[in-house]
Amino acid sequence: MTHAVVVGSGIAGLTVALHAVERGCRVTLVTKDVLEHANTRFAQGGIAGVMFDDDRAADHVRDTLVAGAGLSDPAAVQVLVDEGPDRIRELIALGVAFDRDGAGAFVKGLEAAHSYPRILHAGGDATGTVIERALVAALRASRVDVVEHAFLVGLVTDAGRVGGVDLIVGETAAAPGRRVRLDADAVVLATGGAGELYSHSTNPEVATGDGIAAAMRAGAAVADLEFFQFHPTVLAVGDSFLVSEAVRGEGATLIDDDGRRFAFDDHPDGELAPRDVVARAIARRMIEQGGRPVRLDATHLHSTDAAERAAFLARRFPTIDAAVHDRGLDWALEPVPVTPAAHYLMGGVVTDLDGRTTLPGLYAVGETARTGVHGANRLASNSLLEGAVFGARAGDAIAADAASGAWIAPAAPPSSNAPGTPTRSSSDQGTPTRSLSEQSTPTRSSSEQSTPTRSSSEQSTPTRSSSEQSTPTRSLSEQGTPTRSLSERSETKRAPAFSRRALQDLLWEHAGLVRDESGLAHAASVIAGWQGEARAPHSEHDFEDENLLLVAAALVAAARARRGSVGAHFRSDDPSAAPVPAADTREAIAC
């Protein structure tokens, strides 16, 4: 019987596992935390699909291609749109209760860049949580074996084929984990993105690029890592918490210290401009007003009566409403402070339409993968759909691929889609090929390491409580905000000693919302210096740091190679940069 190991428990990983086990595979799903704690549950926006008789697949395809700034793979987009409705119906059959109106029909959500109101939501702004809960329940009722608190150290390879995974299982703040090797006929990377690259992020702390880094070390191709989407509005009080763009879609505005709607200075669509444009406008205005956050004003929505307005906000955005009130704010009565933050990685491990990577036996899905759907800028509400569609395709393909013994490697992205060839790691660190009995020596605890690690309350370890993991733990008030001009680059800079915080600050300043050659060259130099230092990772946190360094180096290299601005990649030194046209290129108003 074909044995598949799926690494990750978001919508993509869970869908792969359920489809593969249904096709007769033996499936083991390993996850870094507990099964329910994946990035999917943070998705406040909905899921897009052609679910209504008066909508057209051709329109959804066009909307996606426009949002991708011409760099999406049309074949991948067509698959996404054509198979999306069946995957949504599959979710409904598993118990996902999408919002319905009084007559029992699905509530249609209209978002900018969508030419039709095709967005379905569940629980208002809790779509990701509702989907994750249903998929987890289905998985627990299936024959899939689950290993929780399992960290991916690397891929096991033999003669150019991936044949298993090397894990640290059961590490806590008080005790080291044990090294475990799982052999497999197929390995699926569904570890999510790499939001921990940046000092401001909407992602949970477990988003450290583990799958992308493991694939690179094994020799798999990656592409489009320069395309990292920044969400414009994250609460700037307490822990980072994303405020969905659907709030602005309802009519909320962005104002500065003077109460002025400054977004129109940068784009004729103001608050409804493309996500990257709004994020840069906010960053610019924050610098102009001494680093202080701008404010999101919902005090005029729905009703002039404050009580009615508060009831509407609580009903329409229950998750956001709770987060706002948890921070001692009342957004029905006063504007709330917000800041941009890193949100979604469009690039990743190169795959074909069935999740196959360039390495036999290795698949990638979800945010870990570069399927070609998103191009240079993700159309929001397509990400959950991508996880479901391509997760199902990968799960269906595994058994047939293993049985045939053949491997159809994906073609490299067209040269027009990337400034260079897909990236492979030039510093292959090797992967364990020893048997489990040869790996019985426990890993040392973080307290024994020479590399500084965070305290147990700060670490992304299995010991954190559910409440601690509901949002990323870095407080924006503790991070500070850049106060220099976005285009300012000092001539001489001293590289700080390596730490995750130093890496995050480096990328936020030089490879974040606004980039130029001077800043990217500096970032590349600092990262290369850090990579040249002798470090011996032992704990999960140590390995995460090495993963982040490797992905950061590839991201910066890709950003340097792409000298022109496109989509989420903005080069201030691009002489051909032109103003973004109104309306036609607006991105989706959603999470």
Kindly name the structural category: alpha/beta
Major sheet description: 5 strands, parallel
- Outline the low-pLDDT stretches: 425-484, 579-590
Beta fraction: 5-15%
This entry's quaternary arrangement is single chain
Q: Give the overall silhouette.
A: globular
Tell me how many strands there are. Answer: 17
Total of DSSP H or I helical runs spanning 4+ residues: 14
Give the fraction of residues assigned to helices. Answer: 25-40%
Rg over alpha carbons: 22 Å
Terminal CA distance: 40 Å
Mind explaining what this structure looks like?
The protein has 591 residues and is an alpha/beta fold. It has 14 helices and 17 strands. The chain has a five-stranded parallel beta sheet, with helices on both faces. The protein has a four-stranded antiparallel beta sheet with strand order 11-14-13-12, with helices on one face.
Short structural description:
By secondary structure, this protein is α/β, with parallel strands linked by helices. Helices cover 30% and strands 14% of the residues.
Draw up the topology in text:
Layout (H helix, E strand, L loop, with lengths): L2 E5 L3 H12 L3 E5 L16 E2 L8 H11 L6 H20 L25 E2 L6 H14 L4 E3 L2 E9 L2 E9 L8 E6 L2 E4 L20 H9 L3 E2 L4 E8 L10 H4 L3 E3 L19 H14 L5 E4 L8 H11 L1 H9 L9 E10 L2 E3 L11 E3 L4 E2 L12 H22 L71 H4 L20 H11 L6 H16 L7 H22 L30
Parallel strand pairs: 1-2, 1-9, 2-5, 9-16, 15-17
Antiparallel strand pairs: 3-4, 6-7, 7-8, 10-15, 11-14, 12-13, 13-14
Helix pairs in contact: 1-4, 1-10, 2-3, 3-10, 5-14, 8-9, 12-13, 13-14
